[in-house]
Amino acid sequence: MSKIKCRSCGKELFYNSITDIPTFPFCSKRCKLTDLGSWFNEERCIEGPATNDQLEDNNE
Ligand SMILES: [Zn+2]
Fold this sequence. Notes:
By secondary structure, the protein is α+β, with helices and mostly antiparallel strands. The chain has a single domain (about 1-45), classed as Erythroid Transcription Factor GATA-1, Chain A (2-Layer Sandwich), CATH 3.30.50. It has helices spanning about 30-40, 50-55, and strands at about 1-5, 10-15. The radius of gyration is 12 Å and the shape is globular. The protein binds zinc ion. The site of zinc ion (ZN) has 8 residues, from loops.
C-alpha cells in the first residue's frame, strides 16, 4: 500500500493502485477543483518535477 498527501488540503490518502483514487493526487473532486483554481490564480506557476519520494514514502 502506498500513501500520498492530497496536494490541496494535505489529507493523507492510502491506496494500492492509483486507479483506486479517481481524483489522484487529490482526496476529492472539490480539492482538485480548488487546486486548479489556485493554479490559474498563480499564473500557472509550475512546481519542480514530480516528487517520487513522496509517492513512495511508506516507512511508517
Ligand atoms: Zn484534499
